[in-house]
Write a sequence for this structure.
């Protein structure tokens, strides 16, 4: 079974938690064993959203994950990029893992969206889903589904 | 026990925060502006036991006369900070060993 790492950023964007649950389930259905790396706050949101761990089976603290990260540890990296720090984290995880990667870049401000997209584009070979989004995860979900078909 | 940068920053007061809650680019600029020498490392390289997060090449400032280095320090919800902290000569040599330019 292939291994996927979903990297969550700061949980203040409402689209992140439902999209993380959605992505974990979709990846599992195409035979990925999924681990979600997040901050404690983002992890709590997942725990409340999925109390029986039906969708998110494995979680790890983002800092512990980063400390022990090694090249080729995962087959797929999927990261949520909606802040400058999230772009930095994604780029760092990408450079350590050097595996196939998907960046879900989303922001309500178009200028910031372009800035984060450029950061990821210039520093990785990741497939990029770039969407103007905040509350509504649908545009993100639709584009993510398209990228999944290419995996 | 190995050195932990997170613990150090929580328990010490001999470091200076040059910029806080900023973006990586702003911190990279202040590191280059405020250091007498700048080395560059790859994302994920370790300094003082902590993986450094950012966009390559990541600048690390060296102020040898003051015995300090300037690092970018990123947290998911708090953005990136530029921090100047004292280190011994050995740590500066360790940074030279992993420097890419």
């Amino acid at each position: 079974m292939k291994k996927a790492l979903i990297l969550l950023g700061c949980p203040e964007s409402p689209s992140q938690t439902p999209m993380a649950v959605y992505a974990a389930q979709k990846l599992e259905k195409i035979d990925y064993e999924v681990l979600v790396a997040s901050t404690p706050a983002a992890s709590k949101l997942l725990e409340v959203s999925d109390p029986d761990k039906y969708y998110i089976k494995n979680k790890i603290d983002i800092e512990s994950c980063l400390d022990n990260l090694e090249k080729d540890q995962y087959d797929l990296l999927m990261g949520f990029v909606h802040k400058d720090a999230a772009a930095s984290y994604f780029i760092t995880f990408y450079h350590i893992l050097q595996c196939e990667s998907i960046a879900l870049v989303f922001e309500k401000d178009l200028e910031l969206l372009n800035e984060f997209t450029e950061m990821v584009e210039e520093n990785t070979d990741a497939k990029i889903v770039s969407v103007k989004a905040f509350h509504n995860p649908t545009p993100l979900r639709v584009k993510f589904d398209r990228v999944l078909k290419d995996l | 026990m190995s050195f932990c940068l997170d613990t150090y920053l929580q328990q010490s007061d001999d470091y200076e925060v040059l910029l806080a809650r900023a973006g990586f680019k702003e911190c990279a600029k202040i590191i280059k502006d405020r250091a007498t020498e700048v080395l560059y490392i790859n994302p994920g390289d370790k300094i003082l036991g902590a993986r450094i997060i950012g966009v390559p090449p990541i600048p690390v400032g060296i102020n040898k006369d003051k015995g300090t280095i300037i690092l970018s320090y990123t947290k998911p919800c708090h953005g990136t900070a530029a921090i100047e902290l004292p280190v011994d000569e050995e740590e500066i040599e360790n940074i030279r060993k992993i420097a890419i330019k």
